[in-house]
Protein backbone atom coordinates (compact mmCIF):
# COMPACT_ATOMS: atom_id res chain seq x y z
CA UNK A 1 0.00 0.00 0.00
CA UNK A 2 1.13 3.54 -0.80
CA UNK A 3 -0.39 6.29 1.36
CA UNK A 4 -0.39 9.78 -0.14
CA UNK A 5 -0.47 12.71 2.27
CA UNK A 6 -1.19 15.25 -0.46
CA UNK A 7 -4.64 16.83 -0.68
CA UNK A 8 -6.57 16.51 -3.97
CA UNK A 9 -5.52 20.02 -5.04
CA UNK A 10 -1.89 19.26 -4.25
CA UNK A 11 -2.04 16.00 -6.20
CA UNK A 12 -3.48 17.82 -9.21
CA UNK A 13 -0.83 20.53 -8.98
CA UNK A 14 1.99 17.98 -8.82
CA UNK A 15 0.59 16.07 -11.78
CA UNK A 16 0.43 19.32 -13.75
CA UNK A 17 4.11 20.04 -13.09
CA UNK A 18 5.74 16.62 -12.68
CA UNK A 19 3.28 14.31 -14.44
CA UNK A 20 2.55 12.21 -11.33
CA UNK A 21 1.26 12.59 -7.81
CA UNK A 22 3.68 11.64 -5.05
CA UNK A 23 2.00 8.25 -4.71
CA UNK A 24 2.18 7.63 -8.45
CA UNK A 25 5.91 8.42 -8.35
CA UNK A 26 6.37 5.90 -5.54
CA UNK A 27 4.36 3.31 -7.45
CA UNK A 28 6.48 3.78 -10.58
CA UNK A 29 9.67 3.35 -8.55
CA UNK A 30 8.40 0.23 -6.78
CA UNK A 31 7.26 -1.35 -10.04
CA UNK A 32 10.75 -0.86 -11.46
CA UNK A 33 12.32 -2.46 -8.38
CA UNK A 34 9.72 -5.22 -7.95
CA UNK A 35 7.89 -5.70 -11.27
CA UNK A 36 5.48 -8.32 -9.89
CA UNK A 37 4.28 -6.25 -6.95
CA UNK A 38 0.59 -5.38 -6.56
CA UNK A 39 0.03 -1.82 -5.36
CA UNK A 40 -2.94 0.01 -3.87
CA UNK A 41 -2.70 3.80 -3.57
CA UNK A 42 -4.80 5.44 -0.85
CA UNK A 43 -5.30 9.03 0.31
CA UNK A 44 -5.82 8.96 4.11
CA UNK A 45 -5.75 12.76 4.43
CA UNK A 46 -8.73 13.35 2.11
CA UNK A 47 -12.10 14.50 3.45
CA UNK A 48 -13.83 11.39 2.13
CA UNK A 49 -11.10 8.91 3.06
CA UNK A 50 -12.31 5.80 4.92
CA UNK A 51 -11.12 5.28 8.48
CA UNK A 52 -8.61 2.44 8.28
CA UNK A 53 -8.61 -0.08 11.11
CA UNK A 54 -5.51 -2.18 11.86
CA UNK A 55 -7.19 -5.29 10.45
CA UNK A 56 -7.64 -3.49 7.11
CA UNK A 57 -3.85 -3.29 6.80
CA UNK A 58 -2.89 -6.82 7.78
CA UNK A 59 -3.03 -8.18 4.22
CA UNK A 60 -0.30 -5.82 3.00
CA UNK A 61 3.37 -6.74 3.03
CA UNK A 62 4.32 -3.10 3.55
CA UNK A 63 3.00 0.46 3.67
CA UNK A 64 4.85 3.36 2.05
CA UNK A 65 4.22 6.97 3.11
CA UNK A 66 4.96 9.68 0.58
CA UNK A 67 6.25 13.20 0.88
CA UNK A 68 3.94 16.19 0.47
CA UNK A 69 3.50 19.86 1.50
CA UNK A 70 1.71 18.64 4.66
CA UNK A 71 2.85 20.35 7.87
CA UNK A 72 2.42 17.72 10.55
CA UNK A 73 2.44 20.30 13.37
CA UNK A 74 -0.75 21.92 12.00
CA UNK A 75 -3.84 20.72 13.84
CA UNK A 76 -6.04 20.28 10.78
CA UNK A 77 -8.51 17.53 9.85
CA UNK A 78 -6.17 16.34 7.08
CA UNK A 79 -3.26 16.00 9.53
CA UNK A 80 -5.42 14.27 12.14
CA UNK A 81 -6.66 11.76 9.57
CA UNK A 82 -3.10 11.06 8.38
CA UNK A 83 -1.88 10.51 11.95
CA UNK A 84 -4.81 8.20 12.70
CA UNK A 85 -3.92 6.19 9.61
CA UNK A 86 -0.29 5.88 10.69
CA UNK A 87 -1.28 4.76 14.17
CA UNK A 88 -3.42 2.06 12.54
CA UNK A 89 -0.36 0.97 10.54
CA UNK A 90 1.66 0.71 13.76
CA UNK A 91 -1.17 -1.19 15.48
CA UNK A 92 -1.43 -3.63 12.57
CA UNK A 93 2.29 -4.39 12.72
CA UNK A 94 2.64 -4.00 8.95
CA UNK A 95 6.21 -2.80 8.23
CA UNK A 96 6.32 0.71 6.84
CA UNK A 97 8.70 3.07 5.06
CA UNK A 98 8.43 6.80 4.49
CA UNK A 99 10.33 9.75 3.11
CA UNK A 100 10.21 13.46 3.96
CA UNK A 101 6.68 14.17 5.23
CA UNK A 102 6.18 10.40 5.46
CA UNK A 103 8.97 10.25 8.04
CA UNK A 104 7.50 13.20 9.93
CA UNK A 105 4.03 11.62 10.06
CA UNK A 106 5.46 8.44 11.58
CA UNK A 107 7.46 10.45 14.14
CA UNK A 108 4.42 12.41 15.37
CA UNK A 109 2.11 9.37 15.30
CA UNK A 110 4.55 7.61 17.64
CA UNK A 111 4.79 10.56 20.03
CA UNK A 112 7.61 12.69 18.64
CA UNK A 113 7.60 16.30 17.43
CA UNK A 114 8.14 18.09 14.11
CA UNK A 115 8.78 21.80 13.59
CA UNK A 116 9.33 24.34 10.86
CA UNK A 117 13.06 24.58 10.26
CA UNK A 118 14.35 27.78 11.90
CA UNK A 119 15.59 30.24 9.27
CA UNK A 120 16.63 27.62 6.73
CA UNK A 121 15.59 24.94 4.24
CA UNK A 122 17.29 21.92 2.73
CA UNK A 123 16.65 21.98 -0.98
CA UNK A 124 17.96 20.14 -4.01
CA UNK A 125 20.74 18.15 -2.39
CA UNK A 126 21.18 17.09 1.24
CA UNK A 127 24.96 17.16 1.68
CA UNK A 128 27.36 15.14 3.80
CA UNK A 129 24.89 12.71 5.34
CA UNK A 130 26.64 10.33 7.74
CA UNK A 131 25.43 7.24 9.55
CA UNK A 132 25.36 7.21 13.33
CA UNK A 133 27.00 4.38 15.25
CA UNK A 134 23.66 2.56 15.17
CA UNK A 135 23.16 3.36 11.50
CA UNK A 136 26.49 1.93 10.39
CA UNK A 137 25.27 -1.58 11.12
CA UNK A 138 21.60 -1.06 10.26
CA UNK A 139 20.25 -2.81 7.16
CA UNK A 140 18.43 0.34 5.98
CA UNK A 141 21.82 1.91 5.18
CA UNK A 142 23.58 -1.21 3.92
CA UNK A 143 26.21 -0.38 1.28
CA UNK A 144 26.08 3.36 1.87
CA UNK A 145 29.60 4.84 2.08
CA UNK A 146 30.93 6.82 5.05
CA UNK A 147 29.22 9.97 3.78
CA UNK A 148 26.76 10.59 0.95
CA UNK A 149 24.49 13.15 -0.68
CA UNK A 150 20.79 12.65 -1.39
CA UNK A 151 17.93 14.35 -3.21
CA UNK A 152 15.97 16.50 -0.76
CA UNK A 153 13.58 19.40 -0.46
CA UNK A 154 11.94 20.29 2.85
CA UNK A 155 11.29 23.21 5.19
CA UNK A 156 10.15 21.11 8.19
CA UNK A 157 12.23 18.76 10.30
CA UNK A 158 12.01 16.35 13.21
CA UNK A 159 12.47 18.25 16.46
CA UNK A 160 12.27 15.30 18.86
CA UNK A 161 12.22 11.60 18.14
CA UNK A 162 9.68 9.43 19.99
CA UNK A 163 10.50 6.74 22.50
CA UNK A 164 11.34 3.58 20.61
CA UNK A 165 13.20 5.44 17.84
CA UNK A 166 16.81 4.97 16.77
CA UNK A 167 18.61 7.75 14.92
CA UNK A 168 20.44 6.20 11.95
CA UNK A 169 21.84 9.13 9.95
CA UNK A 170 22.37 12.87 10.29
CA UNK A 171 23.99 15.84 8.56
CA UNK A 172 24.95 19.43 9.48
CA UNK A 173 21.62 20.88 8.29
CA UNK A 174 19.04 18.38 9.57
CA UNK A 175 19.83 16.22 12.59
CA UNK A 176 17.32 13.46 11.73
CA UNK A 177 18.08 12.17 8.24
CA UNK A 178 17.27 8.50 8.78
CA UNK A 179 15.52 6.66 11.60
CA UNK A 180 13.95 3.41 12.75
CA UNK A 181 10.80 3.66 14.90
CA UNK A 182 9.36 0.75 16.87
CA UNK A 183 5.92 1.59 18.23
CA UNK A 184 2.94 -0.52 19.25
CA UNK A 185 3.25 -3.66 17.04
CA UNK A 186 4.95 -1.84 14.16
CA UNK A 187 8.34 -1.03 12.75
CA UNK A 188 8.99 1.97 10.52
CA UNK A 189 12.11 2.86 8.53
CA UNK A 190 12.30 6.36 7.13
CA UNK A 191 14.48 9.08 5.67
CA UNK A 192 14.14 12.84 5.48
CA UNK A 193 15.42 12.81 1.90
CA UNK A 194 13.81 11.38 -1.26
CA UNK A 195 15.24 8.08 -2.58
CA UNK A 196 12.08 7.56 -4.64
CA UNK A 197 12.44 10.70 -6.77
CA UNK A 198 14.13 11.14 -10.11
CA UNK A 199 16.48 14.12 -10.24
CA UNK A 200 14.22 15.70 -12.83
CA UNK A 201 11.45 15.78 -10.22
CA UNK A 202 13.78 17.55 -7.79
CA UNK A 203 14.49 20.17 -10.46
CA UNK A 204 10.75 20.70 -10.93
CA UNK A 205 10.24 21.04 -7.17
CA UNK A 206 12.97 23.69 -6.96
CA UNK A 207 11.31 25.75 -9.67
CA UNK A 208 7.91 25.44 -7.98
CA UNK A 209 9.35 26.63 -4.65
CA UNK A 210 11.63 29.34 -6.01
CA UNK A 211 10.07 32.08 -3.87
CA UNK A 212 10.57 30.01 -0.71
CA UNK A 213 14.19 29.30 -1.60
CA UNK A 214 14.92 32.98 -2.15
CA UNK A 215 13.16 33.90 1.11
CA UNK A 216 15.26 31.27 2.95
CA UNK A 217 18.46 32.80 1.56
CA UNK A 218 19.43 29.74 -0.47
CA UNK A 219 19.32 31.76 -3.70
CA UNK A 220 19.56 35.46 -4.49
CA UNK A 221 16.85 35.40 -7.15
CA UNK A 222 14.52 33.17 -9.15
CA UNK A 223 17.18 33.20 -11.85
CA UNK A 224 19.67 31.51 -9.51
CA UNK A 225 17.09 28.88 -8.58
CA UNK A 226 16.50 28.23 -12.27
CA UNK A 227 20.24 27.84 -12.86
CA UNK A 228 20.53 25.24 -10.08
CA UNK A 229 17.45 23.41 -11.33
CA UNK A 230 18.96 23.36 -14.83
CA UNK A 231 22.13 21.71 -13.48
CA UNK A 232 20.16 19.04 -11.62
CA UNK A 233 17.99 18.44 -14.68
CA UNK A 234 21.11 18.06 -16.83
CA UNK A 235 22.43 15.43 -14.39
CA UNK A 236 19.08 13.68 -14.63
CA UNK A 237 19.44 13.45 -18.42
CA UNK A 238 23.13 12.50 -18.38
CA UNK A 239 23.95 10.93 -14.99
CA UNK A 240 27.37 9.69 -16.15
CA UNK A 241 28.48 13.10 -17.43
CA UNK A 242 31.53 14.01 -15.35
CA UNK A 243 31.10 17.74 -15.96
CA UNK A 244 27.59 17.75 -14.46
CA UNK A 245 28.80 15.88 -11.38
CA UNK A 246 31.72 18.27 -10.97
CA UNK A 247 29.57 21.39 -11.24
CA UNK A 248 27.15 20.07 -8.61
CA UNK A 249 29.88 18.57 -6.44
CA UNK A 250 28.29 15.11 -6.29
CA UNK A 251 29.21 11.52 -7.05
CA UNK A 252 27.35 8.36 -8.00
CA UNK A 253 25.50 8.12 -4.67
CA UNK A 254 23.26 10.88 -5.99
CA UNK A 255 23.73 10.66 -9.76
CA UNK A 256 23.16 6.91 -10.23
CA UNK A 257 19.52 5.92 -9.97
CA UNK A 258 20.27 2.51 -8.47
CA UNK A 259 22.44 3.97 -5.73
CA UNK A 260 20.07 6.88 -5.09
CA UNK A 261 17.29 4.37 -4.32
CA UNK A 262 19.40 2.29 -1.95
CA UNK A 263 17.20 2.73 1.15
CA UNK A 264 14.08 1.53 -0.67
CA UNK A 265 15.99 -1.43 -2.11
CA UNK A 266 17.28 -2.28 1.37
CA UNK A 267 13.80 -2.04 2.90
CA UNK A 268 12.32 -4.36 0.28
CA UNK A 269 15.15 -6.85 0.82
CA UNK A 270 14.65 -6.76 4.59
CA UNK A 271 10.85 -7.23 4.58
CA UNK A 272 10.89 -11.01 5.16
CA UNK A 273 12.96 -10.49 8.31
CA UNK A 274 10.92 -7.62 9.77
CA UNK A 275 8.94 -9.59 12.33
CA UNK A 276 5.55 -8.23 13.34
CA UNK A 277 5.35 -7.79 17.09
CA UNK A 278 2.80 -9.98 18.89
CA UNK A 279 -0.77 -8.82 19.44
CA UNK A 280 -1.13 -7.02 22.75
CA UNK A 281 2.36 -5.49 22.68
CA UNK A 282 2.38 -2.31 24.74
CA UNK A 283 3.05 0.96 22.93
CA UNK A 284 5.88 3.09 24.31
CA UNK A 285 4.84 6.02 26.51
CA UNK A 286 4.15 9.28 24.69
UniProtKB/TrEMBL annotation:
Residues spanning the membrane: none
Chain intervals for the UniProt region annotation (Disordered): 1-23
SUPFAM superfamilies found in the cross-reference section: Class I glutamine amidotransferase-like (SSF52317)
Pfam family membership, one: GATase
Top EC category: hydrolase
Enzyme nomenclature, EC number: 3.4.-.-
Hydrolase is among the record's keywords: yes
Domain of life: Bacteria
Record domain Glutamine amidotransferase: where: 37-201
Name of this protein: Type 1 glutamine amidotransferase
Amino acid sequence: MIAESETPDERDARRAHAGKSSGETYAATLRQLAPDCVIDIVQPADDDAPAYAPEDLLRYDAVFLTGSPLHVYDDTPAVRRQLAFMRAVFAAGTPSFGSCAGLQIAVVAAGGRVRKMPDRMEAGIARRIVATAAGRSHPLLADRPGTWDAAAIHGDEVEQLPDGATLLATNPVTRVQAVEIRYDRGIFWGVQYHPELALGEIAIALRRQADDLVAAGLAESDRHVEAQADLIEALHREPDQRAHRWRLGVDGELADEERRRREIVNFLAALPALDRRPAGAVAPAG
